[in-house]
Every structure is written in C-alpha cells, then in structure tokens.
C-alpha cells in the first residue's frame, strides 16, 4: 500500500470512529433505506481530522493542473474548502445557497476574474446534482469549472452525470474502497460489506431517468398528460395555445381599473391574479364583466386569497361573504401552515366545479420565515391532494416529482431589484432558467407602466423565449 493509501485508510477509520460514517438502516432524501450513512458535517468538531482531510486533498491535487480558486459545495464542504484554501494559499469563493437579502444580487462571494479556473470541493457525491448546482452559479458568473475533488464517491451514478456535464470527478475514496479499509481495520464485518455491495447494485442513479422525470426539461404539452387537476390541464392548454406563461398581478383598487387591465393584458396572459379585498367599489355585478373578458381572451381567473385559517372558516371565506370567491375564481392560493383542513375545506365547498389551489411554499420578500423543512412539508401536503393542487408558489426550482404540478413564481421585474417594503425581484430569464418558474407573476412592472398591453407583450415574449431555451437545453 502506498503511503497515501495508508494515510487514507487511517483517515477512513477515524471517520468511522467519529460517527461520520454509520451502518444500520437510514432513510435517504428520496425515501430509500440505505445500510450506510455518511455525514461529514461532524468533522468541524475535529480540527485535526479536518486538517488531515485538507492535506490529503492538497497531496492529491498536486498531480493535477493548477487552479486559480477553490469553491466548496455548500454547506458541508465549506470548512473543508476553507482549510484547503488556507493551507495551499489558493483563494476561495463562496456560493450563496440561501435566499439573498434584499438588495444584494451576488450569487458568488469573494474576488475572482472572468475565466478563472475553479476547483470544486465536495464531501460526498451520490447523484452529483449538488455539484452541478454550484457549477451552474459559478459558470453564470464567468468562472470556469472542469474538475471536482471529492472525499467519497458513493458510486451511485454521480460520476457519470458529472462527466456528461463536463465535470471530471476526482474521489479520494470510493465507497467500495472505504468498505474494504473498514473491514481490514475490523470496524465492520463481512455481512455489512455484503449489504452495502447489494445496496449499491440496486440503487444506481440513472441520469436518463433523472432527466426524463425532470419537469424542467419537459414541454408544457408533454406535462399536460400528467396533470390530475382539471384547472391545471386547462391552464397548460391555454399556455400552449397562447404561448404565454405570464400571470398578471392585478393589484389595482377600482373595478374600472381592474376591468381595463383585464381587457388590455387579456390576450397575452394565462392567469389574471386578483386581490378582490383591495377593490374599493366592489359590487357582484362587475364579476360578470370580468368573467366575460376572461372567456373572450381565454385566461383563467385566480384569486390570491392566501387562505390561512381552520378548514371551517376557510370554507366560509371561500364560498360566502359578498365576494363568494368559489363562484368565480377557478384558482386560489392557500398557506400550508394550517395543514390539510384548508384543502379539505376548499374541496368540500359549494361553487365552481373546476377548482385548483396553489399552495404557498416560499415567498419573494426578504425576511420571510419559511425554511427548507417548511418547503418539504408543503410539498408533502400537496402530494396528498393531487386532484386539487394546481401548483406550488415558490422561489427556487422545486424538485416536483410530478410533472403535472405547476411552479408559480412572483417577484419578477425587468428593471427593478425590489421595493421599499421588502419585495425582491428577479428578471424573467432568471426566474425561468434558474429559479424553475413555469408561470411568472408580474404586477407593478405592468400595472404601473404607461402602456400595460405593450408591457405584457414584452414580458410574455421574454418569458416564453426563456422557457423554450430551458426545454431545449439538456
Ligand atoms: N406575491 C409576491 N410574492 C410572494 C407571494 C405573492 O409578490 O411571495 I406568495 C404577490 C403580491 C403581488 C404580486 O400581488 O405577487 C407581485 O406584485 P409586484 O410584481 O408588483 O411586486
């Protein structure tokens, strides 16, 4: 055994000792049961081991070309990349993962030049998708990426996916080699080694399957077949027929302005989003006019009511009062925080037969309290109501397993980055190509412009071009 391998073996045993590698039955992110679990987050509590890992990486990369900068894949690899950077005097950049604060638009922190060659640092690779997310942001900032150094290759297809995307993966350890080392050191017995081997044979992440099930790569027409909710099917059809993914946010306070806006933007939108409780001269008669315009211009009326009470109250809010939302809006929004009661309440109310709900997972404004576990729980709730849920309102590309579910993203503006009340904007291209939006919500960029119809055409066209670019790229 070379001295490098000997050092690796000692390091592997140390990882086992600090519980960074565990054996038993663990649930993976996608719900599979795995007999081996690797979690390198704990390494920050063992500075000596972090130091050893950085030394191993530095020794390994001596054989490779030189790099201008290093970047760790957030979060676990950040401290690893930091130590590599410090020990090897190679500057580091950091990719932001969390939603940006109001006003800052930077994806990559640190100083770099266009064309700098960056080495990606990662702890464990399964499918390779986390590395690709980081690479995407680096490349968008003009940084070149061709190599990733990783501690452990789980040998589940990540290397292939990465190489198909132009990234060569260099792993200090493969899972098979790790098992061998641990067996030789009497940390595990033969039956555990065998279990891991069988698990690996059965759980290869096939890049082709990943791409096939990825809604972001499918056309709206293809996705129509997957949609279980009748309003979603109609929406997808309208989007294809009119070549538009634009939802106008009609935040105006008089019925005249609202009807004028519907008339002007109607030919260019798929959804017309109202906040009926901000209209000062509301009278039920005006809804007849709105419905007539919607039919004539073939768009769907969407009341952004954001229901957030117990099911019984939501049922009353949805179908009673002077607004009687359920009798004219095919789509509404609801918060997920109250759980299934809201969805049951909407489902069981009187009103239009075809109805759909956009469930809120994330907001566009700075300082919103939603976090990843809230997003995950929202998706789980949505899955339980496939016939009712039209989509999810969010700001990041959701891995919706179901291509028949729509991602709706507000906070879109071509010129502004935000308002004085914490709203944050992205460009139409960014929301479609980077944030995963299917339908984009545009409000004041259109409603406050001198010519809302012309502005709607402009947004429709940029959004549609971005969608076509997204499904064309592989
Ligand atoms: N809206 C957001 N952000 C959100 C959610 C809803 O902006 O996270 I949830 C609504 C509010 C407004 C519209 O009706 O979308 C955006 O309007 P402007 O484009 O004018 O900011």
TrEMBL record:
GO biological process entries: 'de novo' pyrimidine nucleobase biosynthetic process; 'de novo' UMP biosynthetic process
Kindly tell me the pathway this chain contributes to: Pyrimidine metabolism; UMP biosynthesis via de novo pathway; UMP from orotate: step 2/2; Pyrimidine metabolism; UMP biosynthesis via de novo pathway; UMP from orotate: step 1/2
Which GO terms fall under molecular function for this chain's record? orotate phosphoribosyltransferase activity; orotidine-5'-phosphate decarboxylase activity
Coiled coil region boundaries: none
Please report the stretch or stretches of sequence annotated as the Orotidine 5'-phosphate decarboxylase domain: 245-459
Q: Spell out the catalytic residues.
A: 304 (for ompdecase activity), 306 (for ompdecase activity), 309 (for ompdecase activity)
Residues annotated for substrate binding in this entry: 251, 273, 364, 423, 443-444
Q: NCBIfam families attached here?
A: pyrE, pyrF
Spell out the family assignment given in the record's similarity comment.
In the C-terminal section; belongs to the OMP decarboxylase family.
Protein name as catalogued: Uridine 5'-monophosphate synthase
Species for this entry:
Zophobas morio
Q: What is the lineage of its organism?
A: Eukaryota, Metazoa, Ecdysozoa, Arthropoda, Hexapoda
